[in-house]
Amino acid sequence: MASTDFEHYRRHIQKSLAQLEPIFARATVGDFTHNVPIPSHEDELSEFFVGVQLMLDVVREKIATNEESVQRLSVANEALANDKALDEAVLSSLGEGIITMDHEQRVTFINQIAADLLGWDRQAALGRSYFEVAPLQDRFGHLIEGPNRPIMAALYRGERIDSGLSAHLSFVRVDGSTLPVSIVATPIRLGSRVIGAVSAFRDITDEIDLDRSKNEIISIASHQLRTPLTTIKWYSETALAQPELKAESKLQHYLATIHSANQRMIELVDALLSVSRLEMGSMHLLPKLLDVAAAAQTVISDLAPLIRQKQLVVTINTTPRKPRPILIDPESIRIVLQNLLSNAVRYTPAEGHITVSIAIKAGGLSLTVADTGYGIPKNQQAKIFGKLFRADNARRIATDGSGLGLYVTKSIIEHLNGKISFTSEENKGTTFYITIPPQPAGPVSSTTNPKEFKSHASSR
């Protein structure tokens, strides 16, 4: 190529590429709106210019797509923020306290009602351990550990838990005072995963005060009823023992019926007194050395007439074979044994078996009462410790039960800082398991004589 031709070609290339300089300059600052001037005739640069234009077209398309995505994301974020603001407004305006926690048991939300009830600043509570923000205790002032709290059951079992009023739960406020509450705990789900839990609670102080007033009225009325009932019992027993009446079979039958009905009334009055003392916190414990096996044998002896009538086989097993007496309130254990064994005897058919297992370990008590009785229907087992509850099959078998025995039994066991549970299969039998830790020496309370705290059976 001649030098003049080369110079001409160089200038052509330089001039053509110069047209791209402002386009690339704008592109460096994000401006891809200008098109490449495509040569009208094909030469060595035509394909290059077309390629640059195609690149610009692709970039513009991507920018347009991204802008649409950003716009959609902005709209979604705004909607999410609106929903969050609405949710927080709803939660803050509720009359109930709301606290949510994550899987690490850290508080992620607390509404103003909950903060005010517990004495916390909302911002200060966020991120703290749920158990620090809302310590929970039972009716006896014992702190409830994490695994036994309603919100933990919701978190790890994925179940909705409603404590109701009968659980007698209280939160401990920042100032150390207590707040009686009813709690509903629900899991927070993300798809199939449980990522946290929410606890909704309300102050039930007014309900507790009303219940206490009711119990005081029942206690007073029961005390007033007991005197005439005791008089009727004494006179009916005296009349039944008179030799001249033994020949009068009809009169003897009438007197026996009066005595039996009166005895049931006395047991019901004693049951009501026991419940009112428990719920008013006036139960009195006097730990003494007690041979639990001997106490169980005494209760079985009291039930001997019905045991013989039904030809039941009752066995007591002890570990060790001759256990030492333990320090515990004798009256409380007698009530527990009376309620469990009378239920076992009443609700076990003829020729059945009842086994009492007693184990003494390090000063604590492990007690098991097993029977081959009618059992508790599976769909009613969750209610068996409820006040006044009786299972359907128990109502058919015995119409005169109070439905208070197991409620009182569970309350006493909890008062002793123990635990009670059971397994049951309908028409095969029921086993109750009780564990009670070593008891402190000396009286636990000083408001009520434990000898006045009567037992009552037939709760199922």
Q: Could you explain how this protein is built, in words?
A:
The protein is α+β, with helices and mostly antiparallel strands and 460 residues long. It folds into four domains: 3-69; 94-203, Beta-Lactamase; 208-277; 284-452, Histidine kinase-like ATPase, C-terminal domain (Heat Shock Protein 90, 2-Layer Sandwich). The chain contains 14 helices and 14 strands. The protein has helices at 3-18, 21-28, 46-93, 112-118, 122-125, 130-133, 150-157, 205-240, 249-279, 292-302, 304-310, 330-346, 392-397, 405-415, and strands spanning 97-102, 107-110, 136-137, 161-162, 169-172, 178-190, 193-203, 288-290, 313-319, 326-328, 353-361, 364-371, 419-425, 429-436. The strands form three sheets. Strands 1, 2, 3, 4, 5, 6 and 7 form a seven-stranded antiparallel beta sheet that branches. Strand 11 (353-361) and strand 12 form a beta hairpin. Helix 10 (292-302) crosses helix 12 (330-346). The protein is elongated, with a radius of gyration of 39 Å. The N and C termini lie far apart (115 Å). Residues 446-459 have low confidence and may be disordered.
